[in-house]
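Deliverable D2.4 — example input (structure tokens):
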């Protein structure tokens, strides 16, 4: 069904926008707040959509709202239609004066803490007609959202399980064993076996670093001394600094604390010595000019940070900072 067919059915773009928002929020109340429309009016729009389609699209329960099988199919199609419409509007705006449009970008917390503010500032300064929508979360969640068309661009780590993504390695950064000041011998290497004997505070699953080192521990019958799972990145770093345990973190997670000497940190020896930081886009949806430009800005910010010594990492992959995503 294309837009002409949807108009014959009496559907309008707003029906699709409202429906997509409800599915993604999993709640009529949250969607109504985000869309600035009353909940009764939003429910009416969905009833109209279901009536025109002739199928039930949403299943309601005490835990929220989920899409039915038919609803999931309509959701995927609606996402594609809305991307085409937004792309057409962006082209019209660009013809009238510069790059324009909306770009959804996913950033893991370590990357967001290091580059998020700079990226927002750069986009505002150089792309005034581009609106960024920044989502922070685990790399696995961000990869899934990108593959589903919920994001246009994302930073992910290592190999991704989603074949629908175009992934370009950019940076390799070391993993560090981090502890409170005065708790580590900073001039000798620590291996994963020795680290496992320390009281550990690690990010909760899903987390790529944790899953990788746990695979190595399991393969070598090494039981780690876990103190706590922490799903709050800032709290984890504060707990390590306070001496409540040790963490295994990438350099960008503790960059400033390493610089001011408020924690001890040593690079881990043995596998996995590094994690690979990649820029990713979906192969299933067209790449807008706005997405390309935001991609190039973020790539430059990351490369400059490495080359200027502000990020303890090394560059990998293609040297062309303006490589086309298409």
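Example output (designed residues):
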């Amino acid at each position: 069904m294309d837009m002409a067919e949807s108009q014959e059915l009496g559907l309008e773009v707003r029906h699709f926008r409202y429906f997509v928002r409800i599915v993604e929020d999993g709640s009529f109340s949250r969607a109504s707040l985000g869309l600035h429309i009353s909940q009764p009016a939003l429910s009416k729009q969905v009833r109209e959509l279901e009536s025109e389609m002739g199928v039930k699209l949403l299943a309601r329960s005490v835990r929220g709202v989920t899409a039915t099988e038919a609803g999931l199919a309509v959701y995927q199609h609606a996402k594609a239609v809305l991307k085409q419409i937004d792309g057409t509007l962006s082209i019209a705006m660009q013809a009238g004066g510069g790059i324009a449009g909306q770009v959804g970008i996913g950033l893991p917390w370590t990357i967001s803490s290091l580059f998020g503010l700079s990226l927002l500032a750069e986009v505002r300064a150089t792309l005034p007609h581009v609106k960024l929508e920044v989502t922070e979360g685990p790399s696995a969640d961000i990869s899934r959202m990108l593959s589903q068309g919920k994001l246009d661009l994302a930073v992910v780590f290592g190999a991704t399980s989603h074949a629908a993504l175009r992934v370009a390695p950019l940076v390799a950064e070391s993993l560090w064993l981090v502890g409170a000041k005065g708790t580590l011998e900073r001039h000798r290497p620590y291996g994963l076996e020795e680290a496992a004997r320390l009281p550990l505070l690690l990010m909760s699953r899903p987390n790529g670093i944790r899953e990788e080192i746990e695979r190595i521990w399991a393969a070598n019958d090494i039981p780690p001394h876990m103190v706590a799972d922490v799903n709050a990145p800032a709290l984890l770093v504060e707990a390590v600094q306070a001496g409540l345990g040790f963490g295994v973190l990438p350099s960008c997670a503790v960059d400033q604390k390493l610089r001011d000497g408020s924690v001890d940190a040593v690079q881990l020896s043995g596998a996995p010595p590094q994690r690979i930081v990649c820029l990713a886009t979906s192969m299933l949806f067209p790449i807008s000019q706005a997405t390309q430009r935001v991609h190039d800005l973020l790539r430059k910010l990351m490369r400059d940070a490495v080359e200027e010594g502000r990020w303890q990492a090394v560059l990998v992959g293609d040297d062309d900072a303006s490589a086309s995503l298409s």
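Residues 3-91 form a domain with the Arc Repressor Mutant, subunit A fold (CATH 1.10.10.10).
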